[in-house]
Amino acid sequence: MEQVSLKIGERLKEIRNTRQLTLDDVAELTGVSKPMLGQIERGQSSPTINILWKISTGLKIPLSFFCKQEEAEYMVAGLDGENVITEENGGMRAYPLFPFDPVRNVEVFYIEFDAGVRHESLPHVTGVEEYVFLVQGTLKMVIGGKKVLLQEKQSIRFRADVSHGYHNASEKACAAYNVIFYPNN
Fold this sequence. Notes:
Layout: H1 2-18, H2 23-30, H3 34-41, H4 49-59, E1 85-87, E2 92-101, E3 106-113, E4 118-121, E5 129-136, E6 139-143, E7 146-150, E8 155-159, E9 164-167, E10 174-181
Antiparallel strand pairs: 1-2, 2-3, 3-10, 4-9, 5-8, 5-10, 6-7, 6-9
Helix pairs in contact: 1-3
């Protein structure tokens, strides 16, 4: 997990330096404290997914920017335990399959939810859409206050610039592919 923390910190520092922002500037834009941002940059703290969402939303960059890798002519993706983003005490695991691509404005995750896990996601920037393809299990979702139940092998597309939540109310794990599209700016 230490490598992931270092990579996230390097990416945060990279975007901050590229935009010529101070830690105070980033704290104001994201709502994340300056000391926490400093710890993340130094790899001394592994941020939760909610903290990463605050940072990515405040800086208007995709979450997977923090896990991006070198570009290749083609890419075969699999579940990489080193780059997994965990939340809900490890009960939710998001594996970045295809990090944000600025040409396509998309990123792709494979997400696993243990039985009973509930996760609330902050709204993304205006115009962002998510596609969730449920591979196994059932998943209750709340999107902008509306409840939706996804059954195995069903999919949903929704505007993700509203609060949205995921709840695996079953007694078995569930898994989904999550595709996030960002608007052209």
